[in-house]
């Protein structure tokens, strides 16, 4: 389910539905660098944050699912 949500958001970002041209300030502002470094757009930052959050939720869900399986096996073993 988390993967489906991630794929849907990725498709929306690729299609440009949530395209946002505002740029985010670069964390690394080194004045000694020559040339201009590319800063990520707000939609790229949003996508990366969303991807990270979905990954965390997926890990929590897998852990919860594993605990539930163990609990159900204990219940069935004691009931049978």
Quick tags:
80 residues; elongated
Describe this structure as you would to a colleague:
The protein has 80 residues and is mainly alpha-helical. The chain has a domain of 48 residues. Helices cover 65% and strands 0% of the residues. It is built from 2 helices and no strands. Helix 1 runs antiparallel to helix 2. The protein is elongated, with a radius of gyration of 21 Å. The relative contact order is 0.13.
Q: Could you tell me the number of beta strands?
A: 0
State the end-to-end distance.
33 Å
Alpha-beta classification: mainly alpha
- How much of the sequence is in beta strands? under 5%
Low-confidence stretches: 21-27
Average pLDDT score: 76
In short:
The chain has 80 residues and is an all-alpha fold. The chain has helices at 2-15, 42-79. Helix 1 (2-15) packs antiparallel against helix 2.
């Amino acid at each position: 389910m988390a993967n489906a949500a991630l794929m849907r958001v990725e498709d929306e970002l690729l299609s440009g539905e949530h395209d946002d041209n505002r740029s985010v300030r670069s964390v690394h502002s080194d004045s000694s660098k020559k040339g201009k470094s590319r800063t990520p757009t707000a939609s790229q930052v949003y996508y990366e944050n969303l991807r990270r959050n979905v990954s965390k939720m997926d890990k929590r869900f897998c852990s919860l699912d594993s605990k539930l399986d163990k609990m159900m096996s204990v219940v069935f073993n004691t009931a049978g």
